[in-house]
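Supplementary Methods, section 5.1.

A reviewer requested that the exact input to the structure prediction be made available. We therefore reproduce it here, unchanged from the version used in the analyses.
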Amino acid sequence: MTLPVLTNDQKLGMYRKMLLCRHFEDRVNSLFLQGRMPGTIHQAQGQEGCAVGVCEALQQGDMLTSTHRPHEHAVARGIPVKFLMAELFAKSTGCCRGKGGSMHMGDADRGMLPAIAIVGGGIPLATGYALSFKYLKRPNIAACFFGDGAVNEGIFHETVNMAAIWDLPVLFVCENNKYGASTLIDSVMKVKTVGARASAYGIPGQTVDGNDVFAVYQATYEAGERARSGQGPTLLELETYRFAGHSRSDPGHYRSKEEVAEWKAKDPIARFETRYLAEGLLTSDLIASYRSSVEQELNEAVEFAESSPSPMPEECLADVYAE
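The structure derived from this sequence is encoded token-by-token as follows.
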């Protein structure tokens, strides 16, 4: 399989998406601490390489499912940040009309099913999409993000096994940030890697440096092409780290300062900048320009969100379905 050669414009586009993911999370954190934003948040600063690398390899018509930590997935999938910001402000212009909030954002029309906060909940839904793609003979694939905390859930094992025996076009993407809430993965799993579990289902498994956006892109693209050609699913483990706590109420005292500092030294954005400043693709002025444009985009998103109307009380029963 020949991997497409990324152009400089594509590389810079991936860099800007990572910046937009990071700055979006930072802005949301600031708004939340100011009391301007309702609800709660689960953030993913440090995991930008995973979100952007995977989404860059997906095509129009593919479907993505997410987790209770979906902001960066939504940004990377291309949902306009003004609609994401409006959703976080519970406004009717939000991507889910203000009814989903932080843990349920998405837009199926743009290739991302609104996120599912139940641990492992997106895994069977992505597999259902993959089954429909195969049944309808569509050339698309589904991909599902889940954390390391989901790989001991029964739904993970049952669904991966089903996808394997039916050769479904689905990618199982584990963002292994080392902790399921406050529980270290090494304390709940004997095998050394999540990727090794693929052998139990007879499918390929791969452990990837999740903080290298190009390594993630390559692994996802190759697994995607395998799935599109009828060869079934792949389990991808992306090793990464969340700089923040599990949620805004988590100070993260279960992690040592040394551990956090070690992973911050592997920051996917800083790694990109170091590499491409050395190679001449980036300059200090270009970095400043990108950061400025991202901040301006977020300023406009916040203004849009805060000036948008709240849903009307009578809308509470709209978009509600029952069998």
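The chain has a mean pLDDT of 96. These observations are discussed further in the main text.
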